[in-house]
């Protein structure tokens, strides 16, 4: 561990300097104070002290809320992918910041960190052959119910060993991983020839990050270990033997709504935020009053989201959106 010393930048090897001195878990109230270091050369940021793979099970099982899944809500959400103009709707809402939407019918896709399995259900409806990997054992119930091929564990277990993939998707995953370089390298020999790795993760070069500073929702301390910008991510990708085929920014309107809601909250180390404890979309809500309130909040949020959409689409077009969507191919100059 760092012991107060700055480590080297994982993307370019340069020196890191403290960028945010004091930051803690403002979503789920996990105790502990962290800082964010910034590379003097490429601007890459890392959470300090760094966590290791061994730290993660306790952190996630104690503080990351996973409740009972509402299967009806999940199925309803997955069905939206077949609605008319689904693509246009996703573009307007900024929800197409997810790699699996780039999959074509008949392709073989591995989704790493598939969570609720929504992406797998959507891909099935779109005629995509899909597999998933997820660390959370609670997801097994969902996989079994829908007969989905999900490996509970991680990519280093070499799941589905006899299968290679046209696309490997990591939606909001790489920023959580203690060693993203090792992760990218582990994926290289799981690609079919011409295959791509598609990653979505927060963009520290975004307009929202600059406006909200240490209150930006995507610091998500301590779960987010690395905070990329387009330069630092491209450097890391090259280092692990990939070329960046395409890179763009997308801002989910929901993120902006959550950003506005949390900005009014008092923050205190070790205390969970009301916004985040209520925002899980497939969780069973206990009381009628809570349901009623959720409907009101959701309608208000949709309206606010639609208005914010105009701003977000303009930010995305200028490359200043809140989430990066990156497509990687194996480097042509690979030895
Ligand atoms: Zn750097």
Automatic annotation (TrEMBL):
<dbReference type="InterPro" id="IPR029063">
    <property type="entry name" value="SAM-dependent_MTases_sf"/>
</dbReference>
<keyword id="KW-0808">Transferase</keyword>
<dbReference type="Pfam" id="PF13489">
    <property type="entry name" value="Methyltransf_23"/>
</dbReference>
<dbReference type="GO" id="GO:0032259">
    <property type="term" value="P:methylation"/>
</dbReference>
<keyword id="KW-0489">Methyltransferase</keyword>
<dbReference type="GO" id="GO:0008168">
    <property type="term" value="F:methyltransferase activity"/>
</dbReference>
<protein>
    <submittedName>
        <fullName>Methyltransferase domain-containing protein</fullName>
    </submittedName>
</protein>
């Amino acid at each position: 561990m760092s012991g107060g010393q700055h480590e080297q930048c994982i993307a370019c090897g340069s020196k890191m300097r403290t960028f945010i001195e004091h930051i803690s878990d403002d979503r789920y109230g996990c105790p502990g104070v962290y800082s964010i270091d910034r590379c003097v050369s490429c601007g890459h940021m890392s959470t300090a002290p760094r966590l290791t793979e061994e730290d993660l099970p306790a952190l996630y099982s104690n503080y990351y809320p996973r409740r009972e899944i509402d299967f009806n809500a999940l199925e309803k959400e997955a069905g939206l992918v077949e609605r008319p103009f689904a693509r246009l709707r996703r573009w307007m809402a900024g929800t197409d910041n997810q790699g699996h939407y780039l999959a074509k019918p008949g392709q073989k896709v591995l989704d790493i960190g598939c969570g609720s399995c929504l992406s797998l259900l959507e891909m099935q409806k779109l005629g995509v052959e899909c597999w998933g990997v997820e660390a959370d054992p609670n997801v097994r119930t969902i996989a079994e119910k829908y007969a989905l091929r999900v490996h509970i564990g991680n990519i280093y277990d070499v799941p589905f060993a006899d299968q290679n993939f046209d696309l490997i998707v990591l939606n909001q995953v790489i920023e959580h991983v203690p060693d993203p370089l090792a992760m990218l390298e582990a994926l290289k020999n799981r690609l079919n020839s011409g295959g791509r790795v598609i990653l979505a993760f927060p963009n520290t070069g975004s307009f929202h990050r600059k406006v909200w500073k240490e209150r930006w929702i995507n610091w998500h301390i301590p779960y987010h270990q690395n905070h990329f910008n387009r330069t630092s991510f491209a450097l890391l990708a090259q280092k692990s033997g990939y070329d960046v085929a395409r890179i763009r920014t997308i801002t989910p309107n929901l993120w902006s709504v959550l950003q506005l809601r949390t900005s009014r909250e008092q923050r205190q180390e070790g205390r969970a935020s009301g916004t985040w404890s209520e925002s899980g979309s497939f969780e069973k809500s206990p009381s009628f009053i809570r349901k009623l309130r959720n409907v009101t909040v959701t309608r208000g949020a949709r309206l606010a989201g639609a208005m914010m959409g105009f701003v977000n689409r303009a930010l995305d077009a200028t490359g200043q959106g809140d989430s990066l969507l990156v497509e990687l191919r194996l480097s042509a100059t690979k030895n």
